[in-house]
Design brief:
It contains ten helices and ten strands. The chain is an alpha/beta fold and 252 residues long. The protein is globular and about 60 Å long. It binds adenosine-5'-triphosphate. Adenosine-5'-triphosphate (ATP) is lined by residues 12, 15, 17, 35, 37-43. Pfam families: ABC_tran.
Length: 252
């Protein structure tokens, strides 16, 4: 049931965004991918989602080669992409019903799942009957998350799930992700929100300069809680001289 990635590389123009990356995310893990802006986290997830074509490397999900068993693999994959494309002319409820149909949920199943997700996640239930085009960023994000999880995928990929959510919604999402974890599911998340990452991650990956600079458990990453997650990340990524930038002109 794992995600297995071997030798994944991607070049955009002259930039070697991903260089020969190999990674296994095992069932039961909540693997959080961290790294500075533009380091390739979304590109990495989009390769797994088949939205970006890697230059080389192989991706295996549930022991099946992604490209040879696309339909089967995709039926068992749920994803929130960074740009979270929804259908703007649909209402939120219509969009979720549309997604339920794509995944061949029965009408009863769809109704039960959609209404329970709405009750759990949405305070502004009335808006779900208005067109998505008028939604706030956070509201769109919630619809995107609900759509990703509606068919109970074994592999769940979430790109920046917390961005744009208010603290209440973010905390509800933390609880949802933690409860969703089980020994048959793999969860891979890209996020800058270390506060929430610390609450959900079992494993951490840090991308930098095309490579996985760190790949291991959250416990190891924080040295059994000796370091806060942001300290651990700063130590890995922040060169000492970058704190000495001359900004005196701004402060006087
Ligand atoms: N379709 C594309 N064409 C050209 N360059 C691209 C394309 N997609 C991404 N890139 C470049 O690849 C690099 C990695 O981008 P990516 O969005 O994967 O980074 P990221 O780690 O997700 O960033 P952020 O944390 O800011 O969301 C960036 O330099 C970006 O400009």
């Amino acid at each position: 049931m794992s995600i297995e990635i071997n030798g994944l590389s991607k070049v955009f123009g002259k930039k070697h965004v991903l260089q020969d990356i190999s990674l296994t995310v095992a069932p039961g893990q909540i693997y959080c991918l961290l790294g500075k802006n533009g380091v390739g986290k979304s590109t990495f997830l989009n390769c797994i989602l088949d939205m970006v074509k890697p230059d080389s490397g192989s991706i295996t999900l549930f022991g099946k080669d992604y490209h040879k068993h696309q339909l089967e693999v995709k039926q068992n994959l749920g994803a929130l992409c960074e740009d979270n494309p929804l259908i703007e002319e649909f209402t939120g409820v219509d969009y979720l019903n549309f997604v339920a149909k794509l995944y061949r949920l029965s009408p009863d199943e769809a109704e039960e799942r959609i209404s329970s997700l709405i009750n759990y996640f949405f305070t502004d239930k009335e808006s779900l009957h208005k067109n998505v085009a008028g939604y706030s960023t956070g509201m769109k994000k919630k619809v995107g998350v609900a759509a990703a999880m509606l068919h109970k995928p074994q592999v769940l990929l979430l790109d920046e799930p917390f961005t744009g959510l208010d603290p209440i919604a973010a905390q509800l999402l933390v609880q949802l992700i933690r409860s969703y974890r089980n020994p048959n599911r793999v969860i891979l998340i890209s996020s800058h929100d270390l506060n929430y990452v610390e609450k959900i991650a079992t494993h951490i990956g840090v991308l930098n300069d095309g490579h996985l600079l760190y790949n291991g458990s959250l416990q190891e990453f924080t040295m059994n809680g000796e370091h806060l997650i942001d300290q651990a990340l700063f130590q890995l990524l922040l060169p000492p001289q970058s704190t000495e930038t001359k900004l005196d002109w701004m402060f006087t």
